[in-house]
Fold this sequence. Notes:
Mean pLDDT: 87
Number of strands: 2
Number of domains: 1
Largest sheet: 2 strands, antiparallel
Low-confidence stretches: none
Shape: globular
CATH topology: ABC transporter involved in vitamin B12 uptake, BtuC
Distance between the termini: 52 Å
Structural class: mainly alpha
CATH architecture: Orthogonal Bundle
Number of helices: 12
Amino acid sequence: MILPFVVAGLVLGALYALSGVGMLVLYRTTGVLNFGYGALGAMSAMLAWQFAELRMQPVLAYALGILVATALSLLFGFLAGPFLATVTTLTKATATLGLALILLGVMLFAWNDKARFLRLATDTIGFQLGTRITVTQIICLGLATVIVIGTSLYLRHSPTGTSMRALASDRELASMLGIRVRRVELLAWAVSGALGGISGILLSSQTRLEPLFLTFIVIPVLAAVVVGRFKSLVGTLVGGLVIGVVQAVASAFPSTSPFSNATPFVVATIVILYLQRRKVVTIEVSR
């Protein structure tokens, strides 16, 4: 039966998109493509699990995990932000690999690479609709949709959102116009870290809690952002859902299961080739 895989794929894709929103907000504001994003989510999930193991109230454990991810992202932005503002996009992205490696090293030292499980209270509540659907899965889908719509409206209509878009267009000009550049940049780092922390906890409840696995979740997240052409939040949501569903359905069949992990690369490549072809056609028509 294919329906359970479709549902699982939609949930997974929604979480890719939720992570993609955090990555995209940061990129559109600072020009930094954060390859350490998955590691921030992994750190959040591992800490939440550890706090829960210490008999802390689950909600407080999750909140502390998200808070730490937010703080780490903000700290990195505070320390590295001035340097990253002066270098190329490629150098910015490469610099964030250091963040990923540091966090991954800390997690492997503290918890090793053993797979664990993070169970949320809402995992046990659900209903049948052709297949079992849990409240956690509904939360994942609903949260991703709300965050995408809310962030789009915020960036378009709020003063801070306008400042973020201005910063993405021209940092120097935005500064001359009186925009508090560092404050807006740090806000983007904080928002990005918080969304990464939330995504990490939800992803670990739907997949597995393993530092290395969650760190490399950044690959399908990046593919979703590519589908959104590095600017569209709605496109990122669509890209995440498509990647999640195709990946889950591919894993349902023995003949395609070994290749399911290649789904993000395939989808991203198809989109890039399509956009490149359309660009060439547009240039030829304009001539």
